[in-house]
Amino acid sequence: MTSFSVSTPTLASLALGGLLCATALSPAFAWSLKEAAEPYKGTEIHILDEVTPLQESFAKLVPEFEAESGIKVNYQLLNHFEVINRGQADLLSGRGEYDAVMNHGLQYGLLLDAGVLMPIDDFMKDPKLADPDLDLADLIEPAYSSLANYGGKTYSFLQWNYNMVYWGRKDLFENKDEQAAFEAKYGYPLKPAETFQQVHDIAEFFTRKSGETLAGKPLTSDFYGIVMEGLNGGTTYVSVWEVFIRNMGGKLFDEAGHPTFDTPEVVKGLTTWSDLWKYAPPGQAEYSLIDVPTVMGNGIAAQSIAYSDFVLGIDQPGSSSLAGSFLYGPTPRSADEGDAYFSAGEPSGLTISAHSKNPEATYLFLQWAIEKSTQEKFLSSGVGVPMRNSSWPLLIKDDNRLANLYEAMQGSMKGITATLKMPRFFEVSDVMNRIFQQVGLGKVTPEDAAKQLQQEVSAICDPCVLQ
Fold first, then answer.
1. Cα–chain-centroid distance for residue 93?
2. How far apart (Å, rounded) are the C-alpha atoms in residues 285 and 443?
3. Which of 41, 129, 342, 401 has a CA positioned 20 to 30 A from the CA of residue 454?
4. What value does the mean pLDDT take over residues 25-43?
């Protein structure tokens, strides 16, 4: 019989080790929001966000944070333009009415340059505040890093992952007569467009006059092959820049932030985009990001490139008679640019004001908002926009009628980066919107537009991008 003995020091070591293991595993020592928030119990924080169906759904979860943390959240929702104007005014004035403001990526340059955003790195490193299971590697890239990071510091998480998708009429694309006629004319099957040439062919094919036949029925009004944003304002520049120009190899700014509009690639992108206007409704020059989904929902166009959160508002029973009759794909690309792929979107985050008197409590709210458990509840209805890779299986499944839309989002997000951090972005975007619209209307050629853009933007800033 084999025997062995254990020395007293070894027994002591084992006892101590067991105690340490028990301590480490004890729930009392595991991180929890309740314990992390204890010093801030009773604190009231003020959060400004924009109102879309996403935020309205998320707002229903906020009471859960309040109940667990003891922190009161004044979660205010305003429309897109009010959030930008009021939020920036509060941050830049130093009033500090809001502890955190939802800022789109396009706003970060101005606010970082003004020094009014608080970095969150110290909070992320504080074991009393930081949830060790937050798993930032799960946040969707390149949206997260391109949005949140600047100058070696982190200024937000990825909260709202706004993105554009390709949007078409499923009932038309799957009509047997239309399929046969399309393939006979263009030599390939009718399907959601993956390239700019396919977008053009589909737009040309489906543009029809009143009295002509569409899917076997005579039209009582004109029907259009495509609808896009064309307003001199808003976000018209987004798809033109991020989808058409970048996928044609164009860059509007070089690595040092200098304007580079006057190039053949930019001209090619503008030409590709403006050529589609002949197949669009005559009022497209007045269409904003809100009008495009309305036009698609009213059933007068065959395809579009649009923000997916607005698509979600249309492809719902009761919102449009065509709900369930749409199909989706990632935004299209050039067939001639190899593997490079760029899509359009506006990654956005809740940023802590440098003037906040409650930054720790605010950080706990921002962290809770992106936690996996919170996101799982947020997306449990099958409707939402993911900001985590682990969220896709919650949405792309057989019993979700919008699974195809989420597949499209997933594809688009592979090519979405946050807007370059430009302190004078709004002045630059005003120039882009005005000149882009003139190109679409045929008042300025793409070649002249590229020269004019180079001249006017260079007069505003050179370089334009924070380094």
1. 28
2. 12
3. 342
4. 84
Q: Residue 278 and residue 386: Cα distance in Å, rounded?
A: 35
Predicted local confidence at residue 221, as pLDDT: 98
Q: What is the mean pLDDT of the segment spanning 132-147?
A: 98
C-beta separation of 453 from 431 below 8 A = yes
* Segments forming the whole domain that contains residue 125: 39-162+345-415
Q: Rounded to an integer, what distance in angstroms lies between the CA atom of residue 91 and that of residue 25?
A: 43
Please tell me whether residues 280 and 308 are part of one structural domain.
yes
Compute the mean pLDDT over every residue in the chain, rounded to the nearest whole number. Answer: 94
Q: Based on the domain organization, do 309 and 367 belong to the same domain?
A: no
Give SS3 for 4.
coil
What CA–CA distance (Å, rounded) separates 453 from 435?
7
**Residue 86 backbone class (left: φ over 0; alpha: ψ -120 to 50; beta: rest):** alpha
- 44 dihedral zone (left: phi>0; alpha: psi -120 to 50; beta): beta
pLDDT in tens, 398-425: 999 999 999 999 999 999 999 999 999 9
Asked if the structure places residue 19 within a domain, the reply is: no
CATH of the domain at 350: 3.40.190.10
Determine, yes or no, domain membership for 299: yes
- Which helix (H) or strand (E) is 348 found in, with range? strand 345-352
Confidence of residue 29 (pLDDT cuts 50, 70, 90): low
Q: How confident is the model at residue 347 (pLDDT cuts 50, 70, 90)?
A: very high
- Please indicate, yes or no, if residue 408 is contained in any of the structural domains: yes
Residue with tokens 């930054």: 359
Instruction: Specify the length of the chain in residues.
Output: 467
User: Which residues does 373 contact at the CB level (< 8 Å), separation at least 6?
Assistant: none
pLDDT of 337 reads 81
> Are residues 122 and 94 part of one domain?
yes
In the chain, the number of structural domains is 2
Residue 238 shares a structural domain with residue 323: yes
Do 297 and 332 reside in the same domain of the chain? yes
The pLDDT of 166-174, averaged and rounded, is 98
- Give a yes or no: residue 87 inside a domain: yes
Q: Hey, which residues does 385 pair with through a beta bridge?
A: none
Q: How far apart are CA 132 and CA 31, in angstroms?
A: 7
